Amino acid sequence: MDLVPALEEPLKKVLGPPTAKVMAEHLGLHTVGDLLHHYPRRYEERGQLTHLADLPMDEHVTVVAMVADARLQTYASAKTPRGKGQRLEVTITDGSGRLQLVFFGNGVHKPHKELLPGTRAMFAGKVSVFRHRLQLAHPAYELLRGDREETVETWAGALIPIYPATAKLESWKIGKALQTVLPSAQEAVDPLPPALREGRGLVTLPEALLKIHRPHTKADIADARARLKWDEAFVLQVALARRRHADAQLPAVPRRPSPDGLLTAFDDRLPFTLTEGQQKVSKEIFDDLATDHPMHRLLQGEVGSGKTMVALRAMLAVVDAGGQAAMLAPTEVLAQQHHRSIVEMMGELAEGGMLGGAEQATKVVLLTGSMGAAARRQALLDLVTGEAGIVIGTHALIEDKVQFHDLGLVVVDEQHRFGVEQRDALRGKGKQPPHLLVMTATPIPRTVAMTVFGDLETSVLDQLPAGRSPIASHVVPAADKPHFLARTWERVREEVQNGHQAYVVCPRIGDDIDEPADPKKAKKSAEDEAEKRPPLAVLEVADQLAKGPLQGLTVEVLHGRMHPDDKDAVMRRFAAGETGVLVATTVIEVGVNVPNATAMVIMDADRFGVSQLHQLRGRVGRGSAAGLCLLVTEMPEASAARQRLNAVASTLDGFELSRIDLEQRREGDVLGQAQSGARTSLRVLAVIEDEEVIAEAREEAVEVVTADPELTGLPGLRTALDALLDDEREQYLEKG
Q1: Within 10 A of 515 (CB to CB), how many other CB atoms are there?
Q2: Phi/psi of residue 614, each to 5°?
Q3: For labelling alongside 210, which of 61, 138, 455, 507 has CA 20 to 30 A away?
Q4: Residue 247 — pLDDT band, cuts 50, 70, 90?
Q5: Is 92:125 a contact under the CB 8 Å cutoff?
Q6: Which whole number is the average pLDDT over 120-140?
Q7: Mean pLDDT of 466-478
């Protein structure tokens, strides 16, 4: 939190332009304050050596180790055909494991002189595998002999901080830069109210910064981390509490359904009763809709728990009360799907103004970017006149041209795909701010909900409606047991022959203009390196299946680059049961509802995240027949990817999976930052482990904001908030 002028000093003034440029480009650090808040990832103790066995592949690491031996060898190559090429191989050890370092060409002379057996040093480089052994090629290193003044100074402490570093800037160089700026820490203004800090026995901010960068004992590190966690949790919760407070001040039109209107007519024609959960959540929503300030509610429900039904009843209640409701879906496939299923559920109640429409009926229109001009004009007209009570659409709903007669409720499906600007743009279309219901099928642990969706009240649907079937999930190890894969296709054939349908999901579309593999998604591991195979693609797999194991069945493809009309036609044929097997990308991940689809095969399942697999799996077992999900992978048994797949296969509890997911990934991914490539603003706070800190910080934040919404008496906190809410983090906070 870049608090005062000393901390706002640009790094290029303090460290010089070259170092500052690398820090800005590779670590996102621009000011003295940024650097002070770049905390060590861990600490090495002088007397102890790093565990070399645990090094992650393909990552930039810093290790402290001792040289075991060094050998200079000559070799012949294209450049040095006479065997004049030189290679220095150095083996370092941590007392148990060993790691090979290699230096080539002119780069061998300095390390050959310095890296003598028995020498201790810090080494930094990228871990790779060469001939089945871990190695670092041309690592940077810093000797820990203590005979050069600088080394004695820099590494005088018993604990050596290891910083998140990059190939361009090693950890010890970051450490030296911190040495230069550390005196400025004294000027850091404390964001915590004094009573809170003293009441919780936390050290001051300047003291915490000194202790985290230059600890003398492990207790120093613990003190510093405890204090810095509180800062992050508290400032974030104050920002959210202020947003909730501001929202509560806004006016809204209360919307109460009329006793024998559209909602009653709809409930009367339902062929089933709502689950207890649906009734409870509906009551929470209707209570919110009846108030004179806007509802802000997050509805999270397990895949298939009937969220759409709850949202539809809320929309009908608003139409009943004379308003309009808009539902925003992330993709055209999903918007069309919602439109189809809502019209089906409503029957003649969706035929407002048409012959045969019921008396209380309204019009339900679809608005997407690819609609024809005439249909689009009609839809826009129906919205502005109020003829259409319900509109379902994609981002096209947000365009300036779209005007409503009286927008009363906005339902956003799959929140994490919408930035808040979009949400606010749609909200701005009401004469007064409309009520807002946000839905997500990705179960979110309570702490994440408090941190990420902290400006929304939360409702949870965790019961499955009657008539939904359990889904059996199994991992298919295609490399170890090829006959399991053959059996997979036999199972698909059996399902189709029994009158059901199946999905086959692939990570890629697969044609010449294919999307580049996303390096973040496909974390390369040793196993991955070994085969360097691109992920399986829809077009190739569909072709192979139709000519091979699924010959004779109707196989169709669906992916994001098809024309919207073609996509819709494919979905309609599949929904009507004309297609036996649909080979698709993750466009089917959310909301697609075909009760007759009972089997899903996910190819290269290790390339998908845990919550994505859970979402995909939720597309089967939506009817009375049991669902089957087969996760096909070539990853070896011991790999982390296999463990992740085993976890997905072992439970259908989305909340349990979201915890596993969160423990396996960095928080930043969950908090929306990884997607945008920006750093997460959480540096020491771990959302799952620090549940208590977050819950307590939320309570304290509510108290502070209720007493002083403008924070006039807390200038340090205001400054910290401004730093947190610079543009990048404002988007983070608002779940962009």
Answers
A1: 12
A2: -65, -40
A3: 61
A4: confident
A5: no
A6: 83
A7: 84
Higher per-residue confidence, 556 vs 53? 556
* Mean pLDDT confidence for 214-224: 91
- Cα first-last separation, the chain: 21
In this structure, what DSSP letter does residue 273 have?
A: P
Cα–Cα distance for residue pair 504/601, rounded to 1 Å: 5
Residue 590 pLDDT class (50, 70, 90 cuts): low
3-state secondary structure of 713: coil
Q: DSSP labels for 207-264?
A: HHHHHHHS-SSHHHHHHHHHHHHHHHHHHHHHHHHHHHHHHHHS--------TTSHHH
Report DSSP letters for 563-591, one per residue: -HHHHHHHHHHHHTT--SEEEE-GGGSSS
**β-bridge mates for residue 599, sequence order:** 502, 628
Contact 417, 342 (CB under 8 A): no
Q: Which of 342-356, 524-538, 567-581 has the lowest mean pLDDT?
A: 524-538
Q: Other C-beta atoms within 10 Å of 655: how many?
A: 15
Q: State residue 374 phi and psi, 5-degree precision.
A: -65, -45
Tokens linked to 247: 């929202």
Q: Give the span between the Cα atoms of 389 and 255, in whole angstroms.
A: 14
Q: Which conformational region is residue 356 in: left (phi greater than 0), alpha (psi within -120 to 50 degrees), or beta? A: left
Residue 425's nearest CA partner among 454, 396, 451, 466 is 396
Q: In the beta sheet, which residues pair with residue 140?
A: 124
Token couple for 220? 């120093």
Share of the chain above pLDDT 70, in %: 83
Report the b/e string of 196-214 with b at 16+ CB within 10 A: bbeeeebbebbbbbbbbbb
Cβ proximity of 390 and 319 under 8 Å: yes
19 — phi, psi (to 5°)?
Answer: -65, -45
CA distances, 662 to each of 234, 644, 670, 675 (Å) = 21, 12, 7, 15
SS3 614: helix
DSSP type of residue 367: E
Render pLDDT for 428-442 as a digit per residue (tens, 0 to 9). Answer: 787 888 999 988 877
Query: Is residue 413 classed as helix, strand or coil in its secondary structure?
Result: strand
Q: Which two tokens stand for residue 149?
A: 């003044």
Instruction: Tell me the longest C-alpha to C-alpha distance in the chain.
Output: 96
For the entire predicted model, the pTM comes to 0.65
Q: For residue 377, what are its two tokens?
A: 């004009």
- Of 391-395, 457-461, 683-687, where does mean pLDDT reach its minimum? 683-687
Predicted confidence band of residue 423 (pLDDT cuts 50, 70, 90): low
Q: Which helix (H) or strand (E) holds 693?
A: helix 691-707
pLDDT above 70 for 513: no
Lowest mean pLDDT: which of 82-91, 233-242, 685-694?
685-694
Angle in degrees, CA 541, 544, 550, rounded to 5:
105
The two tokens of residue 365 are 């229109």
Pairwise CA distance, residues 645 & 637, whole Å: 10
Report pLDDT for 522: 42
The residues near 175 (Cβ < 8 Å, ≥ 6 apart) are 154, 160, 161, 163
Task: Give the count of beta carbons closer than 10 Å to the beta carbon of residue 502.
Answer: 27
Please give the Cα distance from 641 to 144 (Å, whole number).
37
Q: How many CB atoms lie within 10 A of CB 578?
A: 11
Distances in whole angstroms, Cα of residue 473 to Cα of each of 261, 645, 650: 44, 10, 7
d(CA 30, CA 361): 59
Percent composition of the chain: helix, strand, coil (DSSP 3-state, to 5): 45, 20, 40
Give whole-number Cα distances, 631 to 478, 481, 611, 620, in Å: 10, 13, 14, 14
